[in-house]
């Protein structure tokens, strides 16, 4: 949790309000599951026209940038589209104002910023697995209270590459992968996947379209390839962090991201992407 003694002079009220148009309160069971197992599933966060329209905007952005699955492309080219909130008004609203911000307040604390928005797709034909890893390995933030939210845009199951988790693995803390973050390591194609001791304890996390799984930043998770001949597995990945979270790997500079709730000590966070809020407020 956050240190209440830290002075945070830049508040969300001072830099522009956010209209919260639908709320989501976690049950005690969900909070306990997150604390003990490192994840929890939220059912039907999106549904109906809201889900359909957001999925359509995401797919149009994906196809415009990347096209369909390319067997000759890299994993990154086939699987990830960053900053999707820059390309979709509906994603921006969902990221900045949606119910997952309420979830972040309940799990991270009262001062919250957005840390990442991206699409992570496994379209038909993309049968490449992604190994065990912690999200805080790819973007080591401190304090280590960040959460990842994965909103399913399709039904996701074992066949088309749903998430697998190792319940409780977050309690062991951060795994050191810093040697693989160097420029030389990246040029060699090293990823940040790790070996696990109790893989037999892993469980799949199937989702229906519109469901969300929330992950602690230290939870070990992976996914298999999409083995379906007819179904995509499309995920909207949104990460939220303490408004004063810093990048350990970047000389402890603040992680840039929009201030969504509460206050921050960093003026660059207070003003980050405020134009998106202004666009929303003016219609």
Mean pLDDT: 88
Please, how many helices? 10
**Rg over alpha carbons:** 18 Å
- Please provide the ordered H/E string of secondary-structure elements: EHHEHHEHHEEHEEEHEEEEEEEEHH
CATH topology heading: Jelly Rolls
Instruction: Summarize the main sheet.
Output: 7 strands, antiparallel
What would CATH call the homologous superfamily? Answer: q2cbj1_9rhob like domain
Q: Helical content, roughly?
A: 25-40%
Question: Regions with pLDDT < 50 over 5+ consecutive residues?
Answer: 12-20, 182-189
Number of strands: 16
The termini sit apart by 35 Å
Approximately how much beta-strand content do the residues carry?
15-25%
Just name the CATH architecture.
Answer: Sandwich
Can you describe what's shown?
It is a single chain. The protein has about 280 residues and is α+β, with helices and mostly antiparallel strands. The protein has one domain (about 10-280): Jelly Rolls. The chain is about 25% helix and about 25% strand. Residues about 10-20 and about 180-190 have low confidence and may be disordered. The chain starts with 9 loop residues before the first strand and ends with a helix. It contains 10 helices and 16 strands. Strands 2, 3, 4, 7, 10, 12 and 15 form a 7-stranded antiparallel β-sheet that branches. Strands 5-11-8-9 form a 4-stranded antiparallel β-sheet. β13 and β14 form a beta hairpin.
